[in-house]
Amino acid sequence: MAKIIITGGETLDGEVQISGAKNAVLPILCATLLADSPISIGNVPHLHDVTTTMELLGALGVNLTVDEKLTITVEPTAMVETIAPYELVKTMRASILVLGPLLARHGHAEVSLPGGCAIGSRPVDQHIRGLQALGADVVVENGFVKARADKGLRGGHYSFDMATVTGTENVLMAAALARGTTVLDNCAEEPEIVDLANCLIAMGAKIEGAGTARIVVEGVDTLHGCHYDVMPDRIETGTFLVAGAMTGGRVLARRTRADLLDVVLQKLEEAGAQINTGPDFIELNMHGKRPKAVSLTTAPFPAFPTDMQAQFAAMNCMASGVGVIRETIFENRFMHMNELQRLGADIQIEGNMAVIRGVERLTGAPIMATDLRASASLVLAGLVAEGETTVDRIYHIDRGYENIEEKLGGLGAKIRRVAS
Ligand code: EPU
User: Fold this and answer.
1) Ligand 1: does its nearest atom lie under 6 Å from the Cβ of 342?
2) What number of H helices and E strands is found in the chain?
C-alpha cells in the first residue's frame, strides 16, 4: 500500500494550480445520463472518485472517452443498464447520484444502498422522499433502493428535513425531466449545486434559485449535449492555503475563486494571514509568523465547511493559543484527532467538540489516514512536524486530491510517495 513520507520544517513559498472540484464533477458526470446527445466535461480533476464514476457509468452502458487534457466525452445511449451494483457503490457514496437521473430518463433504477462510512452513518432517506414527491414508487429491498416511475416523473413540492448536498442534487436532476413544475425547499446552498444547475441549464434545463434554499424547476421533455467546464475545487484551495499558513509561508493558489471561500479566508485572516485575492487567484502570506489558533463550528454553506475542519484542526495543533472546533454535520469526523495526538498535539474531545491547545512543536511519527479530509490534515501536520512523518493508507487522499505530493513539492515541501 502506498505511503507518503514528509520531512517537516520547510517553509512553503510558490504557486499552485487548483484542479476542478471533486464534489462538482461527480454529480455533473451523473447528470450526463439525462442527455440525449454527447456531452463533454472539461477541467476534470484526475482523481480516484472520477475513475470510479466513469466505471459506474460504463457499467450502466454509457460510452465514455477521455482526451489528453482529461476532457471527458459522454455519449449516452438509448439502452442503458439501470442497476448500479454494490461493488461500485460501496467504494464511493456519491454513486447514489445516478438514482435521480436513471429514474427520470428511463423510468426505473436500482442503486445499491451506499451504507455508512468512516465519517458517519450518512442515510439517503431525503433522496428517497424527494423522489417520492415527484411521483416515484420507491422501496428499499435486499440492500438496494428500487425506484420506478412507469408513467414518468411529475413536478411536485418537497421540503428537505435538513440541508443535504447530494440529496438536493439527486432530486434536482430528476426534476429537470419531470412533467411540470417542481419546488424544492430547504435545499443545500453549496456552490457545487450551483455548478451542477449551470451544467443542467447548458443542457436545456429550466432551473431558478440554485444556491438558495428554494429551487424551482420547470421540467422539460429532453436535455441535450453541451460542453461544460467544472468549477475550481474550493476545498483543495483551502487545504493549500492552510499549508501555507502552517509553515509561515506564502502560497499563491491559481485558477480558483475567492468567493467560494469567504468564511475560510476570514478564519485564515483571524489566524494572522495576509490574504490578497483577484479574479482567479488567492494569495496567502504569513510573513514567517506562527498562526494563531482559531475556533470554528462547521455548518452547511455559507458557514464553515465540514470538509475544511480537519485541516484547521491540524493548524490549531501548532498554532499559538487555544482553538475550539465543533463538528455539526457528521457524527464521527474527528478520527484525525487521535493521529494528530501521535505527533504530539494537545487535544481534548468532548462529544462533537475538540479543544486544541497549540504546542510549540509537533514531532514526526508513522500515522494512518482514515478518510479523505483526515488524510489531508495529517499531511499538513507532517509539513511542520520535526523529522519524518509517514502517512499510511493514502489511497484515501487520492480519492479527492490530484497529485498532492507533486503540488506540495512544487511549493517547497519535502514530500514523496513510496509504494511500500
Ligand atoms: N443526511 C440525512 N439523510 C439524507 C441525506 C443526508 O440524514 O438523506 C444527513 C447526513 O447524515 C449529514 C447531513 O445530512 O449529517 C449532511 O449530509 P449531506 O447529504 O449534505 O452530505 P453528502 O451529500 O453525502 C456532500 C459531500 C461531502 C461533504 C458533505 C457536506 C459530495 C459527493 N460529498 O456529502 O464531501 O462533506 O456534502 O458538505 O458532494 C468530501 O469531499 O470529503 C466529502 C465527504
Assistant:
1) no
2) 14, 24
* Pocket flag, ligand 1, residue 239 (CB < 6 Å): no
- Terminal-residue alpha carbon distance, the chain: 6
Strands 250-254 and 281-285: antiparallel
- What confidence score (pLDDT) does residue 337 get? 96
Q: Tell me if the pTM is above 0.85.
A: yes
- From atom 4 of ligand 1, which residue's Cα is the shortest distance away? 124
pLDDT at 269 over 80: yes
Q: How far is CA 249 from CA 256, 274, 286, 363, in A?
A: 19, 11, 5, 19
- Cell 493548524 locates to 315
Please state the rounded mean pLDDT for residues 300-319.
Answer: 98
Q: Provide Rg for the chain, Cα atoms.
A: 21
What three-state secondary structure class fits 51? Answer: helix
- Relative to the CA of 329, which ligand 1 atom is closest? 15
Residue minimizing CA distance to atom 5 of ligand 1: 124
Determine the pLDDT at residue 79.
Answer: 67
Residue nearest to atom 9 of ligand 1 (CA): 122
The percentage of the chain sitting over the pLDDT mark of 90, rounded to a whole number, equals 90
Active site residue 226: no
Tell me what the mean pLDDT of segment 3-25 comes to.
98
Give residue 8 CA to ligand 1 midpoint distance, Å: 33
CA-closest residue to ligand 1 atom 37: 165
Instruction: Calculate how far, in angstroms, residue 166's C-alpha sits from the geometric centre of ligand 1.
Output: 6
Catalytically annotated residue among 117, 187, 226, 317? 117
pLDDT tens digit sequence for 73-98:
999 877 678 899 888 888 898 999 99
Contact between 198 and 169 (Cβ < 8 Å): no
Strands 227-229 and 39-42, bridge-based pairing? parallel
* Closest to 155 in 3D by CA, of 192, 181, 174, 176: 181
List CB contacts of 279: < 8 A, sequence separation 6 or more.
none
DSSP string, 113-126: ----BTTB----HH
Ligand 1 centroid, distance to 335 Cα (angstroms): 17
Which pLDDT score, from 0 to 100, does residue 121 have? 76
Ligand 1 center to 329 CA (angstroms):
8
